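ZP: hey, is the flavin-adenine dinucleotide complex queued? I don't see it on the tracker
AM: it wasn't, my bad. submitting now with these inputs:
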Amino acid sequence: MIKHQMVVVGAGLAGLRAAIEAHDRGIDVAVISKVHPVRSHSVAAQGGINGALANNPDGKEDNPERHAFDTVKGSDYLADQDAVLIMTEDAPKVIIEMENWGVPFSRTPEGRIAQRPFGGAGFPRTAYASDKTGHALLHAMYEQTVKRKIKVYEEWIVLSLAIEDGQTHGLTAMNMLTGQVEGFVAESVVFATGGAGRIYKQSTNAMINTGFGMAIAYKAGIPLKDMEFVQFHPTSLFGTNILITEGARGEGGYLFNNKGERFMEKYAPSVMELAPRDIVSRSIFTEVMEGRGFENAYVHLDLTHLGEEKIKERLPGIRDIAIHFAGVDPVKEPLPIQPSQHYTMGGIDCNADGETVAKGFYAAGEAACVSVHGANRLGGNSLLDTIVFGKRAGVAVAKYLNGSNKPKASEEAVSKALKSMNDRIAELKNSTGNENPQEVRDRLKEVMNQKVGIYRNKEDLASALKEIEELKERYKHIHLNYKGEKYNLDLIRNLELEGKLLVAEVITKGALLREESRGSHSRRDFTERNDSEWLKHTMAHYAEEGAKIDYKEVTMGTWEPQARKY
Ligand SMILES: Cc1cc2nc3c(=O)[nH]c(=O)nc-3n(C[C@H](O)[C@H](O)[C@H](O)COP(=O)(O)OP(=O)(O)OC[C@H]3O[C@@H](n4cnc5c(N)ncnc54)[C@H](O)[C@@H]3O)c2cc1C
């Protein structure tokens, strides 16, 4: 058995920030990550991080309250307003701290941190490091981790939690290199395992974003919240679905249909291309469905009028991606783009300190749902969420572990979890079932793409749920093709597949039950937001026979729900 006071699962921005904070408060903390820390998806973030610094000449009037209002309105009033205010008030401090840690933010001519306009924001509020903001942030954060000599178990994958009677005792994890599964005894565990994009066929997410962490917590009895709210980013590159940052529109990019029309005029006349993501994605989808797309599949994102100098300075990564993956140079031609799954608004139910229903178990980052994004996240708010709430989780854990009523983790509980995981792996390796797991996985992604996408209706959602139930049944009869010990990706992928099926089921069930349209959840059969019945968080609880759903109140505050017009 390996022992630490605190184990953080996930080495993206949220996980590392939590670990740094707890370490600085005297806690023996270790981080576990299934990839090297700087390969976490945070590294891929492009466009920037929000904070009311009011540095831009057009943004002098900005302040945390205005940032909070934009966030709440963007969330279609489903975000908890107290948590949103915490986030927006911390935002300027977090950005300055990251600057002090060495992040090379882009600058205004006077030398201040530059801020670009982003969708749904009243002012230019998004601080950025060219179009590689996540890269800059995560490397700075990792340097701080290395400087403190925080132990990182890299290329270890966490498989299950040891939580008994609402108390955390530790977890089980596999050293991927050797195939050995170990028990970790810890009084406190933080899950910062990122999003679940890869249950969709088309996603901007890294392959590692499988939602497995969410599923592990869910199976251990922690509810998942608001999972039906899945963000589809308007602009992913046609063909590969690699992200083309919202910063491209923030810098002034236009969207055109096949008639040469800037079609956002019809859908969001006052803000055009800078409407929030749910609205722009639906607009593009509608244009294509009504025959005004190219090849019935995509529209154009035109940057040519920005000029070569600006594109090379502000969007060099985007230019590289477009040239290499679509053969198009944005200096000369428009980019073919289409919406694609991008972000998981829902996640492990927790409060603004990362606390969950289980003592000692915390969540932060995209895996968590505080909730600050509600039914639709604004661009630039996720990087902010990871750092603000990662840090707060670190503070809360340290307080918990330094408290007088110190909990004790039980080795016996971890041994039990370890035995049960080793039995599960032996069962999978010995299975002679006739189902091919790759087919189950491919079908799941197809179903989610086709039936639980941008526009939804009862018939599609019910049929998706039925198929997911069938796929869960088929999963029980899968076999492995490779049974070796070392770096057995076949085994790992198929352990994760169970998690994908569980998360997909929760998303679909929540979407089927929610008979309204709110933010990213858009029902053809219930086209209006319905505050009298549906202004509430969906809570999914694990049960053998399938997710059990109930609801929880939204924390309101200053802002009463209004019609969401842009
Ligand atoms: C292409 C792209 C661009 C984006 N651009 C922006 C942007 O400009 N601005 C913005 O605000 N947001 C952006 N986002 C969203 C934002 O980047 C993410 O939501 C955020 O970085 C997630 O950080 P995280 O720390 O929660 O998780 P991640 O960075 O995803 O890290 C998850 C970690 O968990 C580990 N892990 C997961 N499961 C296990 C397991 N079972 N065992 C061990 N380890 C595990 C992984 O190894 C990884 O270290 C973007 C997202 C994408 C996909």
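AM: back. The two ends are 56 Å apart (CA to CA).
ZP: great, adding it to the tracker
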